[in-house]
Amino acid sequence: MFFFRMIFRSFSRQFKRRLLIAVTVCLSATVSVAMLGVVFDVGDKLNAELSTYGSNITVQPKADAVVNDLYNTGGDANSNASGTSESDPTTFLKESDAPKIKTIFWAFNITNFAPELNIHADVDCASESVDSSSCKASGVPIVGTWFAKTLHMDSGESTVAGMNGMRSWWKLDGSWPKDDSAQGLIGTTLASKLGVTKGDTVTLYKTIADGSRNKQRITITGIYDSGDSDNNAMYIPSSTTQVLANLPDSIDKIEVKALTTPDNDLARKASKNPNALTQDEWETWYCTAYPSSIAYQIEEVIPGSVAKQVRQVAALQGDVLQKTQAVMVLMTVLSLVAAAIAVANLMAASIGERGSELALLKAIGATDGAVSRLMLAETAVISLIGAIVGALLGSGVAQIVGHVVFGSGITMRPMVFVLVFVLLTLTVLIASFSSIRSILGLKPAEVLHGR
Questions:
Q1: Summary mean pLDDT of the chain
Q2: Rounded-to-integer distance, Cα 379 and Cα 375, Å
Q3: pLDDT digit string, tens, across residues 248-261
Q4: What does the alpha-carbon distance between residue 105 and residue 253 come to, in Å, rounded to a whole number?
């Protein structure tokens, strides 16, 4: 009872200094909870944010992939495996196999995908209102794809896939075409060259293998600006492209957007040769959403395909994630260090002012341990109040950061609060160590006689 009475009496003194300790711990807890909350949730949000700027996995026929590897040809939307922009692909995947991507182990991490059939065709947009001499072009890149195709899976679920969600950075004047229609989009550069505006109709001509010449009329529903060479192309439904090129159920590429975990040593080892992994490594790799493991699973379900991560996108995601997490962890460490210094200084000042009180306690029989526990209990109660308030404030700050930076809230995991309270406990104990040593060095006779 005496011990608790002394704690109560201690709370009634030096209110300002105790308040400063509580505020210091509160601020440290606020920063720590906010930063660590974001750190534990930032991975998926950064991946989702970065994936809006393009696919991070591409799927090609094996023959094209081999040529790309041999000759280091990239293969953009408008170039084939040989790297020439005027040639059409010669190897294909089946468009009907594309929905199988949503059947892999990491199906829910596949946020979008779009098959492509890249060909070249002649364009004629001559009409009564357009001069025929300036409205023709040869060898125009035509990309047959999905725009917002609804897929009904065998599991009974439905999903929407297509360029509508893959090209979110495009500036579109008009509307997206409908799938399986005679509609299309045209790039700003090509539209300017031909003098075409939205609502106009153009005719595509394509010479096929038997020498005959197919044609297809396309109504332009919109003009897009991609900000790159893609502005020289036209995008039309894949089914229309296949009829024009006489290539039924054929595609030469699939772009895939997936939420992934940044590569580590295991993922890099697996990407070189999955067969070199041990059984435990294989299970860990296969059941983790690495770009390489998702690509491997896509190859398993699409016959004759090679799926590869887009290295620049994957590297960017991992680099940005690591740097963002490093900054936030550094801020957490600095806030804890600042709290430790502040608490240590405040406790030292408090002990200096209360030297006679503590010496009197020791003089009437209190042991060093009892006096030390008194000071620790007082500091612990004050710190606990500050930590609880700081944790609540930190959760609010984390939500603000999430909405401002990522446009969505942060999921606060219980582990964050446990970790912060453990770190704060260690911080306060370390900060109290020098103060406890000074208490042990107090000599009641000298202090009470003013020496």
A1: 80
A2: 6
A3: 999 999 999 888 87
A4: 21
Q: To which H or E segment does residue 258 belong? A: strand 253-258
Measured CA to CA, the distance from residue 443 to residue 358 in angstroms comes to 10
Beta-sheet pairing, 158-161 with 171-174: unpaired
Cα–Cα distance, 230 to 281 (Å, whole number): 41
The answer to whether 26 and 268 have CB atoms below 8 angstroms apart is: no
Say whether pLDDT at 297 is over 60. Answer: yes
What pLDDT, in 10s, does the model give residues 340-363?
A: 888 777 776 666 556 555 555 555
- DSSP, residue by residue, 26-39: HHHHHHHHHHHHHH
- State phi, psi for 111 to the nearest 5 degrees: -85, -25
Q: What are phi and psi of 443, to 5 degrees?
A: -115, 110
Structure tokens, 343: 């608490």
DSSP secondary-structure letter at 353? H
State whether residue 114 is helix, strand or coil.
Answer: strand
Q: Return the number of other C-beta atoms located less than 10 Å from residue 72's C-beta.
A: 8
Paired tokens of 120: 């070249």
- pTM here is 0.65
pLDDT in tens, 116-166: 999 999 998 865 444 555 678 889 999 999 999 999 887 778 899 999 988
Residue 150 burial by Cβ neighbours in a 10 Å radius (0-12, 13-18, 19+):
exposed
Give CA–CA dist 138/86, Å, rounded: 10
Rounded Cα–Cα distance for residues 165 and 147 (Å): 8
- DSSP code at position 199: T
CA distance linking residue 301 with residue 393, whole number of Å: 48
Give the number of residues written for the chain: 451
**At a CB cut-off of 8 Å and minimum separation 6, what does 297 contact?**
104, 105, 106, 286
Contact 75, 60 (CB under 8 A): yes
**Interhelix angle 368-401/2-11, nearest 10 degrees:** 50
The pairing of strands 305-309 and 57-61 is antiparallel
Separation between Cα atoms, residue 340 and residue 425, nearest integer Å: 10
* List of residues 6+ apart from 443 with CB closer than 8 A: 359
Terminal Cα-to-Cα distance of the chain (whole angstroms): 32
Q: How many Å apart are CA 10 and CA 370, to the nearest integer? A: 14
Give, in order, the Cα–Cα distances in Å from 320 to each of 47, 137, 323, 361, 403: 10, 42, 5, 57, 19
